[in-house]
Structure formats: structure tokens, C-alpha cells
Write a structure and sequence with these properties.
Elements (H helix, E strand, L loop, with lengths): L2 H14 L6 H13 L5 H4 L7 H14 L5 H5 L1 E4 L2 E4 L11 H11 L7 E5 L5 H9 L4 E6 L2 H13 L5 E4 L12 E6 L21 H4 L7 H9 L4 E10 L5 H11 L1 E8 L5 E8 L3
The structure holds S-adenosylmethionine (SAM).
């Protein structure tokens, strides 16, 4: 790494210490973005110099990051399940925790079956698009209440050259009653309204509607779980992401709604993060 690059990264890292848990990484990503190079380039070109315009652009991004603006919004992209997705302030920044939900869904989807899957609250489209990319035979329908999210998700589907049907809908409201789905997946907003977490880190920069459904944090999960039996085939599967402290109420909601074999899995931080259940046959 050249002395100049090293100095720029150290300067930004120090400024980010108060607003980011990944200060050095953020600094490197933003500088590489200004240079229009991959991050590894910073380490592999010891003679690299920063032009004045690049330095100015970097300084501007560093100030934006400190507001704070998520790095994904500044770069306009974020990696999820080893694929790159466009990311804008219209939608929640994809989280690594959500890879668990995708992994659980993929384990249940045979490669040779054209199952029907619904992703409720698709945001950037990461869940729907990743599932379709990994299992091309699937019929995938994805919804969001926010048209700006749907526009972004459509762009991401085009980026990855997959066909997903997108519908603007308040959860199930505009979904056809038939044909039913073999699987419903959702990462809904689940933070309790007014929780101090909502004012921490990058969260104030993300859409509130993507983070919290209101008072208890369970309102969206309640609707999704309670109405799922009306849209699932008997024996169909429901998989939802939820808060680390929502395992018990989610299991309770699922059992009450008629789901069997209900279980919860933990994310990479070993926190309970996604629950699934199988709809009982009548
Ligand atoms: C936690 S974000 C998840 C986004 C994306 N699926 C992901 O995993 O990154 C929740 C999404 O639900 C959407 N949403 C919130 N309320 C909704 C509602 N009533 N009906 C449909 N979608 C809703 C938000 O716009 C947001 O995109």
C-alpha cells in the first residue's frame, strides 16, 4: 500500500470509529470506489497516487458516511449470498443474517421441482431473486407495499437476468387466492416502535417502514403468520425472519395458525433469527 493511500485510509478510519463498527473496512471500500478499483487494488499497487479529484470525492463520501449514511447507499450496491445487488435509500440494506432464511428455504426446495414461492416485503428483492437464481425452475412472486422498493427489486431482477413477478401489496391484500403457494418466505419489519436500537448506527438512514411495524414489533409477523394458511398449499412451508427475542411468540403464532414441525434456527452470531413451520393438512 502506498504511503498516500495508507494515510487517507487511516484518516477516514479514525473519523469512522464513532459511527461504524467496521471503520477500516468502510474507509477501504469508499476509497476503492473513488478509484473505481476493487479493494484488493489498494494493497497491490504500492506506487498508487491519489489525484486531486479522487481525494476530494473521497473526502465528500467520508463526510456523508459520518452523518451516517450506510456504505451500501454510498456505493450504490451490496453483496448478498455472493451476488451483487443495487442498494438505494428506498430499501433496507441487505443484511448477512438474512442469508439464513435463504439457506433454510433452499434446503427445502428440490432442484427439479417447479414450486410456487412468495416473498412478502421484498425490499431490494434479495430473497426472491437469490432463490430464483439458485433454483431456476421456481415460480417466484414478490410483494412490497412501497413502489420505490419494487422498482429497485425489478432493477435487481434485470441485473441478474431472472424472472420474478412483482406485485404492490399490503402483505396478502392484492395476492390472488389461487393457485396457492408451496412456500411463503418473509423478512418483515420486526423492531418494536420506539426501541432505542432504531436511533443507533445507520438505522436512522434506512426506511422506517422496513424496520418497524409499530408498537410491539410483532404486528407484521402476526398478519403474515395468521393469514398464511389461506395462501399456502396443505403441507406448504412458511419461513420468517424475526428478532432474536421473538422466537417464542413466533412459535406460538405459528402453532396457533395450524403449523406443525415449528422450529427456529440461529444466525451466524448464534442468535435465534428465523423460524419455519409446515402447514398441517386439514
Ligand atoms: C425488513 S425489510 C426486508 C427487505 C428484504 N426482504 C430484505 O430481506 O432485505 C421489510 C420490507 O417489508 C416492506 N413492508 C413493510 N410493510 C409492508 C406491508 N404492510 N406490506 C408489504 N410490505 C411491507 C418494507 O417496505 C420492506 O421492504
Amino acid at each position: 500500500m502506498s504511503e498516500q493511500i495508507d494515510k487517507a485510509i487511516r484518516w477516514a478510519t479514525e473519523l469512522f470509529e464513532t459511527c461504524s463498527e467496521s471503520a477500516r473496512l468502510d474507509a477501504e471500500l469508499l476509497l476503492a470506489h473513488c478509484l473505481q478499483k476493487p479493494r484488493s487494488f489498494l494493497y497491490s499497487w504500492p506506487e498508487m497516487k491519489l489525484s486531486d479529484s479522487c481525494w476530494q470525492r473521497f473526502q465528500a463520501l467520508v463526510q456523508q458516511r459520518r452523518r451516517p449514511t450506510p456504505v451500501a447507499y454510498l456505493l450504490g450496491k451490496r453483496e448478498f449470498y455472493s451476488m451483487e445487488y443495487a442498494s438505494t435509500p428506498a430499501a433496507l440494506v441487505p443484511r448477512p443474517e438474512t442469508e439464513l432464511l435463504v439457506e433454510l428455504a433452499l434446503r427445502q426446495i428440490p432442484r427439479d421441482q417447479a414450486l410456487r414461492i412468495c416473498d412478502l416485503g421484498t425490499g431490494t428483492g434479495i430473497i426472491a431473486i437469490t432463490l430464483k437464481k439458485q433454483r431456476p425452475l421456481l415460480h417466484v412472486l414478490a410483494t412490497d407495499i412501497d413502489p420505490a422498493c419494487l422498482a429497485l427489486a425489478r432493477d435487481n431482477a434485470r441485473l441478474h437476468a431472472v424472472q420474478v413477478q412483482f406485485i404492490e401489496s399490503d402483505w396478502y391484500q392484492n395476492l390472488p387466492a389461487e393457485p396457492r403457494f408451496d412456500m411463503i418466505v418473509s423478512n418483515p419489519p420486526y423492531v418494536a416502535g420506539g426501541h432505542p436500537f432504531l436511533s443507533q448506527g445507520d438505522l436512522p438512514a434506512e426506511p422506517t417502514i422496513a424496520l418497524t411495524p409499530g408498537n410491539s414489533g410483532l404486528e407484521a409477523l402476526e398478519i403474515i403468520i395468521q393469514q398464511a394458511p389461506d395462501y399456502l398449499e396443505p403441507g406448504g412451508l412458511l419461513i420468517v425472519e424475526h428478532g432474536y427475542d421473538q422466537e417464542a411468540p413466533v412459535a406460538n403464532l405459528m402453532r396457533t395458525a395450524g403449523f406443525d414441525k415449528v422450529r427456529c434456527e440461529s444466525d451466524h452470531n448464534n442468535l435465534p433469527r428465523a423460524s419455519l413451520g409446515c402447514l398441517l393438512h386439514n
